[in-house]
């Protein structure tokens, strides 16, 4: 699973390398990456002994729980709207148009490249779409969405399989725990009522109860920003397992002790890949990376066991991604935002703080628990860009670790619990948090059922005239009535509103365009 995860994460960057970077730079960098991938896949690799009946699938059994795991994960993905087979929330307008432009424009995507004046380029976290977009160039939009669905399913299966191993439980239990884990958003409209969201009908977007402050549940992340969420989740759980797992040598094709004794190479490379797919998430992940690196480093010989090829690969991924993303000046607005104390306390406590405090008796010595609390407390005060995307995305890593710490209490029988009351309190908080993903899933089921079985075809024509602006949604459950997919944007080429600047940049004077970008 570790090897499959690296292939899954590195393939999009290799496509980015040959699509966005000059060939004279891409070729040597690609050779370094491929050599690093070879080292990751085959160092200390013991071939499977087929003569003895051992195979790559010898440890994978198609039991009934395994089938349920596959079905539950596939159903969750189906309801997310990825692929266009179920209702798509408003954010899919932007997800769809990025994939469409990657399909219809040459790589890199230039919207305007005059001899003088602004050179407009798509500068966004495009990595996750590249395998699907490449297929689309030889097929069509429907094939691209089908490949995107399969690519996403593969990623979710990797994430939940790793999570099951980390929590020492079955993949089915891990997947269900992951799907329904959330903060106490349900209490927000009850304690602080406003026009929207409301408790009824049970399809509202509960995440917005605190206005523009939001710590999104994992189901919300999948249903709204899957392109960042899925690869980030995989990087996070792989880093968590690299730091915690020690495997004994075996003849099953799994990495040996020699490879597992010094996981710093894995951790550094995985963080750089997280930066490529979701840079804001990687900021929230960085404290956990530093914790693991400190734990795994022998300071008498700090550079021992560092693989120079893998470290160089991580540096290449980080620097190219950094120069590419900083070509977009939309995120140059940064600083600290003041919050009223009562609003901050309500947000912090309901969005994870109460659960974090409930974990204190058994986890207060755990550096991961400390880092989680600190991050969840300070992230709301940080402003990056014109909106509050930093709050929603940088919180993904601490929320993931909060979920891991909670799962260790729930699933790991060996954990020393301070009392039975504390354990049941944690279970009760988990149960109360399930309302948020249930509302997200309910909205998708309601709108999808309405589209296929109740409402008449809206006869919505795909917009052909240039679209320059897309208004923010008021109520997600009422978006694009009579239509399943969010396709308000034919292309980003003519967009001129503030939100579109997150995707389009004038790159003429940037380092990436001058010295790295393919023309």
Tell me the layout of helices and strands:
Blueprint: H1 2-20, H2 23-42, H3 64-80, H4 92-104, E1 110-112, E2 120-122, H5 130-136, H6 141-167, H7 171-180, H8 187-191, H9 218-244, H10 257-260, H11 264-277, H12 279-296, H13 308-325, E3 334-336, H14 341-358, H15 360-363, H16 367-378, E4 382-384, H17 389-394, H18 396-411, H19 420-433, H20 435-454, E5 504-506, H21 511-516
Antiparallel strand pairs: 1-2, 2-5, 3-4
Q: Estimate the helix proportion, in percent.
A: 55-70%
Main sheet properties = 3 strands, antiparallel
Number of helices: 21
Shape by Cα distribution: globular
Radius of gyration: 23 Å
State the separation between the terminal residues, measured CA to CA.
Answer: 37 Å
> Order of strands across the biggest sheet?
1-2-5
Number of domains: 1
Fold and architecture overview:
This protein starts with a helix and ends with a helix. It is globular and about 70 Å long. A hairpin with a 7-residue loop joins strand 1 and strand 2 (about 120). It has 21 helices and 5 strands. It is about 55% helix and about 5% strand. It is mainly alpha-helical and about 525 residues long. It has one domain (about 1-245, about 260-330, about 345-440). The protein has a 3-stranded antiparallel sheet, with no helix packed on it. The protein has a two-stranded antiparallel sheet with strand order 3-4.
